Each structure stands twice: as structure tokens, then as C-alpha cells.
Amino acid sequence: MSIGLRNDYATVTQPPARMRRPRWSTVAIVVFLLALAGHGLYRMNISFDRLLRGPSNLWNFFNSAFPPATERAPALASAMLETIEMAVIGTVIGIVLSVPAALLAAANTSPWPPVAVAMRFVLTTLRAIPDLVWALIFVMSVGIGPMAGILAIAVDVLGFAGRFFAERIEEVERGPIDALRSTGAGSLAVMAGAVLPASFASFTATSLYCLEKSIRGATVLGMVGAGGIGGELTTAFTVRAFDTALTIILMILVVVLLAERLSSTVRRRMLGADQLGRSI
Hints:
The chain crosses the membrane at residues 24-42, 86-107, 128-155, 188-211, 218-239, 245-262. Belongs to the binding-protein-dependent transport system permease family. Residues 80-263 form the ABC transmembrane type-1 domain. The protein contains twelve helices and no strands. The chain is mainly α and 280 residues long. The protein has a single domain, classed as MetI-like (MetI-like fold). The longest helix has 35 residues, at 187-221.
């Protein structure tokens, strides 16, 4: 049998990749994760009795919550409006700050490579800390109220949008940039005339997603004293006013759905229905 035939025979008789024995590192990772989960179940004292009581407690909650209370509807609507305003103001601040941060973080627009590395590290740090933790930090620094929520949302949006803005800037085609540079345009003119216009659609889509995310997040920030409807929700659960809590939950659901609908409408108008509906 020739060498070529032996190689072909060995290839044919070799088991497929999914049938091969896993590497020891894969087995070690799986064992470690299983051990971690088992230790967690033991340490956290999770019992099946509590899980079995869950459906009956959930039924008692909905039984007590219906019908939703409407006596405090004006006050709750005011708190919901404050939540929306917090989300809008914080998102606008975060988006405005994200543009220069992204220009510094993008490899093709940063004035110096170490600046890009440092800015990406800052954005990663801002993004790694949850917005609820930022709210606790700002409640401690500026006090209880909407200002802490606005600052928490702005920082969270800056970390999120700054990264995606930078990635979009790095994807801008070189053609318009080189055309402007050939006319003697400086760096600022190139950014204003080529980079930012080419990234505008992506920036807008990311900003709208950030607004949706901020509205959802702002409803939770109030639970730690950062203003808005979250404080009302915490109070309702604390005093076991489940009918009021259900009213607040329904208000949050309506606002989030409206925000998503508004975002989809704006995206459709910007990108065009043909592009969004085109199959790949």
C-alpha cells in the first residue's frame, strides 16, 4: 500500500471531532464548574421545599394584586415621568461624552496609540461596573435623588456607547478619508467631514438602544435611592401593597414597550424599510 493510500485510509478511519476524547483541560474546566455549582447549592441552602412553595406564593401575590390600584395614579405617573426624564438626560449626556471618547479610543483616529489603549481601558472599566453599583456610588457622593440616577445612567451609557462608537469608527472605509487628506485637510476636518458622517447611522442606532436600556435601568435605580418609579415600587413591596406594585409594573411595561416601538420606528425611517426587510 502506498503512502498516499495509507494516509487516506487513516483519514477515513479517524473518528469525527465530536467523537474524540476531550482534552484534559476541557474536562478540568467542566469538573471545576460542576464542583462550583454543587458547592453553591450546598452553601446557599437551596431547598426544594422553598421551590415547591413558590407557585402558591406567586398565586397569592397575583390574587392580592388584582385589580391594580388606581388611587395613586397621578403620583405614580409623576414618578414615572421622572424616570423617563432621568433616562433621557443621562443618555444624552452619555452619548455626547461618548463621541470624543470613541475618537480617542479608535485606533485610526487616536492621536497616540497609548491614548487609545488608556481610553479603551477606561471605557471597559465603566462598562464592567453595573449601573446599579454606579447608582449606589453616586447616591453616596451626591445624595439621594434623581441626580444620582442621571449620573449613573450617563456613566453606564458612556462605557457602552463609547466602545461601539469606537468600533464603528475603525470600520469606516479609507476612501473618503484619503480623499479629504489629499486635499490637505487636517485631522479635525477629516473627522468632521468623513469619519463622523459615515458613522452617523450606526451612532444613532446605538444611541436609541442605549435609550431603551436606560429606561429599563432607570426603573431599577430608584430602588437604591436614585429617584424615579423604582422607589415607589420598593415601598409598595415593603408595605405589601401588591395592587399598587402591579400598577407600577404595568406602567413600566407600557413605557418600555413604547420606547422600543419608538426606537424601531426611528431606525426604520433612517435605514429604510427596504433595507430592514431585505433577506440575506
